[in-house]
Amino acid sequence: MTVTSDPFAPGFVERPYWWDAAPPTIDTAPPLPDQIEVAIIGGGIAGLATALELGRNGTKSLVMDREMIGWGASSRNGGALAGAGSLGKMRSDLGDVLGKKFLQELAEESEGAFESFEALVAREGLDCDFVRCGRFTGAHAEKSMDALKRRAEMINSAAGEQAFLVPKDRVAEEIATDRYVGGMVLHRAGSLHPGKYVRSLGRAAERYGATLAGGTEVLSYRREADGGFVIETSRGRLKAKHLMVASNGYTGKATPWHRRRLIPVASYMIATEELGEERVRQALPKLRVYGDTKKVLYYFRPSPDHRRILFGGRASFVDADTRRSGARLHQFLTDLIPDLEGTKVTHSWKGNVAFAFDMIPHVGVEDGVHYALACNGSGVTTMTHFGTVAAQQILGGSNRVSAYARIPFPTKPFYNGTPWFLPVVGMSYQLRDRLDGWRLRDRKG
Fold first, then answer.
1. Which of 70, 79, 185, 249 can bridge 352 by disulfide, Cβ–Cβ 3.0-4.6 Å?
2. What CATH number should be reported for the domain holding residue 202?
3. Residue 416 and residue 152: Cα distance in Å, rounded?
4. Which long-range contacts (CB under 8 A, 24 or more apart) does 406-409 make?
5. In terms of DSSP H, where are the helices of 276-365?
6. Number of domains composing the chain
7. Beta strands 289-292; 298-302: pairing state
């Protein structure tokens, strides 16, 4: 595919589109307490959801982040969310790996997490542009329809008739492309404004007594004889009865056990210029959230006001600058939806997501340290739910232990948290997509 025109609009910025309306809070760096009941590392969705649930139960917490609160992937992601649909997206052989009965338990918990998310938004009055819009997943190859069929069966078994397959001759009802050979629609799925969500979640946590301390890097910690923790930060030392790790794709050397179990991967996004709702509807008639089955997948959606298209994917498996990745994503977008040829890009950005080696999200406790990690690219619902699960663990447990907390959190020998192998994995994924028949069309612009 050859593109000669400049894809960038006048005033183009290398910054998340979401930050126009809801930039991360520039924290006033409140004084750190000498002691706190719960110290939380990571000021994104998981950490804030943990603090919120703790506060609702009368327990004070301190949320620390080396950047501004909400600066990471929590305010950079695509803003798509689902229940068991996200679980099925992670890997297609979970039933074989975990057993069908346990997979059913995971699916039911994931569906319940979506319902709980909706209840949280309503209960706390979170201003985040949330709407149930459904999700369309495009099949990039004929064999992918079999995987989507299995995914639909899993979802429907856990949640009733929520998913259905779309044959090739009806794909145009969902998206203006001829690149997909079919697809799946999931009804129980939605979208939100991630910048607004993480900001509202933080404000809700503060209302319940949490202290949010951006610009506070945790340097190290040690466990005391009484089971508590002494924590060294860039702003001083404090003691905590409980410690929680919720740093996900930005997990650092202060928590080496967790870092060895996470693969940080950069994900890239762009926002088009304002196209107007009519043109957006021509491209995406149902105004859903969208993804596909490729190894190097695309994810995209309309903006909350339906005037732009936001498009994301793995534009690079090395750390690319966002101008170059923005041009690449624009190629992907116009190849997928040719009617968008000639549109311009106003925003381009990236953020780290964290994958586990088993491609499953993990919540639990290790050596007294609680954690909620590895969203695997589908974190809004999962990490909100895991924050609640972690808080209940800290508070003394709930009536039912999360199925996710019963899955071992694996690593690999000699892995230290630096994913040197990603370029090789990326080349493998690209080759597999090409073998499946997916190539960029050769169009000149």
1. 249
2. 3.50.50.60
3. 37
4. 407/98, 407/358, 407/360, 407/362, 409/261, 409/356, 409/362, 409/364, 409/366, 409/373, 409/374
5. 277-283, 322-336
6. 1
7. antiparallel
Domain containing 229 equals 8-435
Sequence-distant (6+) residues with CB within 8 A of 96 are none
Residue 186 counted as domain residue: yes
Q: What is the dihedral of CA 125, 129, 132, 133, to 10 degrees?
A: 180
Query: Please, where are the H alpha helices in 174-295?
Result: 194-207, 256-259, 277-283
Helix (H) or strand (E) holding 38: strand 35-41
Q: Is the pTM of this model over 0.90?
A: yes
- Within-domain flag for 442: no
Q: Which amino acid is at 263?
A: I
Encode the chain (445 residues) as per-residue pLDDT tens digits: 444 478 999 999 999 999 999 999 766 678 899 999 999 999 999 999 999 999 999 999 999 999 999 999 999 999 999 987 666 555 556 666 678 888 888 888 998 999 999 999 999 999 999 999 999 999 999 999 999 998 898 888 877 788 999 999 999 999 999 999 999 999 999 999 999 999 999 999 999 999 999 999 999 999 999 999 999 999 999 999 999 999 999 999 999 999 999 999 999 999 999 999 999 999 999 999 999 999 999 999 999 999 999 999 986 666 789 999 999 999 999 999 999 999 999 999 999 999 999 999 999 999 999 999 998 888 899 999 999 999 999 999 766 789 999 999 999 999 999 999 988 888 898 889 898 989 888 655 4
